[in-house]
Amino acid sequence: MTPADAVAYRAGDPAGDELVRVYVWEIPVRVTHWLIVLSILTLSATGLYIGHPIGAPPGAAEQWFVMGWIKVIHFYTAYVFICAVLARVIWMFTGNKYARFDKFLPVTRNRWKGMLPTVLFYSFLKDKPPAYLGHNPLAGSAYVLVFGLYFVEILTGLMMRGVSAPAGSLLHWCASLAPLVGGLWLARWFHHIAMWLLLGFMFHHVYSSVLMAHVEKTGTMEGIFSGWKWARRRELGPGPYRWWHRGEWDE
């Protein structure tokens, strides 16, 4: 569609203010999202106990029993976390256009143009954010850093887990990678810092989601449960629901 056709389409739509539902977040995106959230919370709680067993029951036997169960929960939750992260990465190349990698990396001119207005909105220097049905450019770029932290947690966690793994197992081999980060003590330090950064991001993510839901009124909070969001018909092009933004169709 040419720019002239786009203008004609918008101007000639008598029901342009009508709200329509758009399927944005597919089931794999929603499932991996919540698995990652629950995994991070569980791993953080159990990891803090493993590092600092405050309130441990008296007696060596009781302490070992509780610590053993905490470690089992931590290890198996870590495997769920790894699978969820890898599944989400795969879906960046197989999912719909809102889930794909180009919504995380600002590789198009339109998303680069939307970066500064989005920063100004989050800085309280702009009343309304640029309209995006999926991740806006700033949120998408932030997720690149978040996924980097995911892999820091995964790699350092596997290094530490490998110390107590049986000889000959793949996990035991992971421990031999610790010198690449300066040793196991530095791997543990990176693991710990990445945890706090992820928890900080989670708090900010909830805040920004509530803010965007209040300002945009497109079902941002509901969408991560149902997959559907709302958009005005005049902002949707024909065909596969292309999003009109700043004079261009955002594919």
Describe the structure in your own words.
By secondary structure, this protein is mainly alpha-helical. The protein has one domain (29-207): Fumarate Reductase Cytochrome B subunit. It has helices at 3-11, 27-51, 60-94, 109-122, 137-163, 170-175, 184-216, 220-226; strands at 19-23, 228-232, 243-245, 248-250. Strand 3 (243-245) and strand 4 form a beta hairpin. Helix 2 (27-51) crosses helix 7 and helix 3 crosses helix 5. The radius of gyration is 22 Å and the shape is elongated. Residues 1-12 and 239-251 have low confidence and may be disordered.
Topology:
Elements: H1 3-11, E1 19-23, H2 27-51, H3 60-94, H4 109-122, H5 137-163, H6 170-175, H7 184-216, H8 220-226, E2 228-232, E3 243-245, E4 248-250
**Cα-to-Cα separation, first versus last residue:** 12 Å
* Main sheet makeup: 2 strands, antiparallel
- Rounded to the nearest angstrom, the radius of gyration is 22 Å
CATH H-level name... which superfamily? Transmembrane di-heme cytochromes, Chain C
Quaternary organization: single chain
What's the mean pLDDT score? 82
| Class from secondary-structure proportions | mainly alpha
**What's the CATH architecture?**
Up-down Bundle
Briefly, what CATH class? Mainly Alpha
The fraction of residues assigned to DSSP E strands is 5-15%
Any idea what the shape is? elongated
Q: Return the string of H and E elements.
A: HEHHHHHHHEEE
List descriptors:
251 residues, mainly alpha, Fumarate Reductase Cytochrome B subunit, two-stranded antiparallel ribbon, disordered N terminus, disordered C terminus
